Amino acid sequence: MIVLSGILKIQEGPKANRNGAIIETLMTGVLIFGIAWAFVISPLADQNISLRVIIVLAIYPTLSAVLVSLTVRIELLLQRRLTTTDVLLLLTMCSMFIGDALYLLDEVHRINLSFGLMNLPYSVSLLTFILMTVDPTVHTLTEPSFVSRNPRLIPRLVIIGVSFLAMPILLIAPNETTFNRDILGGLAFVVALLALFRLSSALGKSDDAQRRLHYQSTHDYLTGLGNRKYLDEYISVLVDEASCHHPGIKIAIFFIDLDRFKMLNDTLGHSGGDAVLREVAQRLEASSSPSGAVFRMGGDEFVVIEKDIADAADAMTIAASITEALGRTINVHQSVYRISAAVGIEIATIDSTLDVQTLIENADLAMYEAKASSPSSIAVFTDSIRKSVEAHADLEVDLHNAVRQGELFLVYHPIVEMSSQTIVAVEALVRWRHPKHGVLAPDQFIKLAEQTGAILDIGRWVLFNAVKDLVTIRASRPALAHVRLNVNLSVEQFRRDRIDILLVAALRESCLDGEAVCVEITESSLMSDLTIADGQLQKLRSRGVRVALDDFGTEYSSLAYLRTLPVDLLKIDRSFVEALGGTVSVSDTLVMAIIAIAKGLNMDIIAEGVENIEQARRLAELGCEYMQGYLYSKPVPLEELVRLVDKRSVFNLSGGLSA
User: Fold this and answer.
1) Which of 22, 107, 609, 633 is the 20 to 30 A CA-CA neighbour of 530?
2) What is the DSSP string of 94-135?
3) Residue 333 CB: number of other CB atoms within 10 A?
4) DSSP state of 406
């Protein structure tokens, strides 16, 4: 049973381990045969004892030695701690081997022991076997166990070493005939060959393992591209080569970040996202030059390094080919998608002072500069970008103190209803009165607030103060008694804060119901995390709060999603309104389509950025119900809003306000 278990355990191991086990078993077998020849077969043959008796005398200690060897082999392969049962089993096998060996030596007159001493090892073997059967850990012998891919090295080396040294020791022992010496010499030669072969195999396997470990530590498992560690090694090699053979060579580092990859990954799932990343890696490798190299930094960020760059124009040409290659459609899960990426470029001359970390940071900064402008944009790093980043960092520090130091204030932008020509709502807009830079608009700090988490404090401050101001606005004039409040919310507030709870608390504090407020969220924000729609927005709507989709039409608008989203109102982006005028244009058609979609889904529609009477008239002709823009009023503080209503109470299409 033990022999069978040993064979099965050996077969369960990987191929490399099986080959090693076979070699080690052969070494053990040859050693046992050498011992049997020297101490059993040869002496008994000289005494004219029959072959049958010789075999019987030799087979017991030989089999016992095999059992000991297999037991050791099994316990070396087990990937767990040795139990008491394992130790007792090994003692049992060893005691049996010692007893068989003593009987053999006594028969060939090598030793002369009493009957009691001859049977002592068998008594120990029986005792250890009984102890093993009653030990609490005996169940481990029949339980499934993992087989180690790397059996304990030191015990195995001991086995190899003993096998390697045993035969020379046997050769040194006195041998009466040349034939015996030849046999033992041949066996020693075989053991030596096996030991040398096993040693070279182990060393080769170690080298292979080292190469695999180095590859795994320097390459991305998903795409097979080099990782950040390999990038460092690669640039170090470039520096050494340049210093010896190509001094003054220029390289360009292209830092690439995919646009809206998170939304794509959420839509396709992780398997689909992985397929996109593998395709991106293949396209980058295909678009790079033979001397170029591609690396994956992690996530959806990649780096391409090109050598022998002439100037910035040369680098821009390469970057354009990269964006073109990535911009082609991709098929994932039997659907077609289009991806884009922002590319930041850093150009440097290779010398011994080259700092890899600085190069990557500069290319990364240029990439963010590109991403801030538009999809598939390219930017080359300049000192002005670094200065902008440093100013950005200073602004970040100031931003965290803005709420606590009372530097924020609110202004209100009226929303006019065309049918009644009166203010029906006001949009609360936050401003930052910076001590050094003056008054900053939201587009100058809101994105930074979202990135740093400061948006949570700012959002809470805006929400509670705007609701309080709404009470003041409604109480100030009869014409404003039913005005609603529109508040802009960031997707980060939904992800990291409980907006539904906060807004309900703000309304309860000011004794207002949910119908008094409309929350605005941009289309891109909502599409980036559709779980918002199923969670907090639904809860807000259940309390009467209206939901407006801001900047509609500027992103990947999906009518299928729009039909199911908890949205009450669409806001036409100012980019569509700007082109409206005297002649019918593409913008007229788009605005008409948006208005038709909104009405078909029972949604209200607001046009943003109305700045002249031609735009207002055209929107009215197309059926737009509500308008907002500088034609009627710029965003104003609370006091000016009240004075505005006192001065002019009616808005008309002849331009601005009328008494």
Assistant:
1) 609
2) HHHHHHHHHHHHHHTTS----HHHHHHHHHHHHHHHHHHHHS
3) 11
4) T
CA distance 66 to 592: 90
Among 156, 160, 22, which residue's Cα sits nearest to residue 77?
Answer: 156
Q: Are 54 and 44 in contact (CB under 8 A)?
A: yes
pLDDT score recorded for residue 471: 94
Which of 53-57, 504-508, 608-612 is predicted least confidently? Answer: 53-57
Q: Which residues contact 471 (CB under 8 A, 6 or more apart)?
A: 510, 511, 512
**In the block, residue with structure tokens 């309860």:** 508
Three-class SS state of 429: strand
Judged by average pLDDT, the poorest of 121-125, 158-162, 547-551, 636-640 is 158-162
Name the residue with tokens 């190299």.
293
Please count the helices (runs of H) and the strands (runs of E) in the chain: 25, 18
**Tokens, residue 207:** 């080298």
Nearest to 103 by CA among 94, 114, 89: 114
Rounded CA-CA distance 575/587 in Å is 9
Q: Which residues of 414-424 are buried (b: 16+ CB within 10 A; e: fewer)?
A: bbbbbeeebbb
Say if residue 529's pLDDT is above 90: no
Run of H or E including 296: strand 293-298
Angle at 84 between CA 79 and CA 89, to 5 degrees: 85
3, 67 contact by CB (below 8 A): yes
* Three-class secondary structure assignment of 335-350: EEEECCEEEEEEEEEC
Taking each helix axis from N to C end, the angle separating 15-36 and 178-218, rounded to the nearest 10 degrees, works out to 160
Closest CA to 521 of 496, 502, 546: 546
- Give the per-residue pLDDT at 657: 47
Pairing of strands 250-258, 378-380: unpaired
**The tokens 């045993």 sit on which residue?**
166
- 88, with CB counted inside 10 A (0-12, 13-18, 19+), is buried
| Bridge partner residues of 305 (DSSP) | 253, 293
The overall average pLDDT reported for the chain is: 79
pLDDT band of 520, cuts 50, 70, 90: very high
**Nearest to 629, CA basis, from 410, 440, 412, 414:** 414
Determine the average pLDDT of the residues in 344-359.
Answer: 83
Using only the alpha carbons of the chain, give its radius of gyration. Answer: 41
- Contact predicate 295/288, CB 8 Å: no
284 vs 538: CA distance, rounded Å = 42
DSSP β-ladder status, 293-298 and 250-258 = unpaired
The predicted pLDDT at position 434 comes to: 92
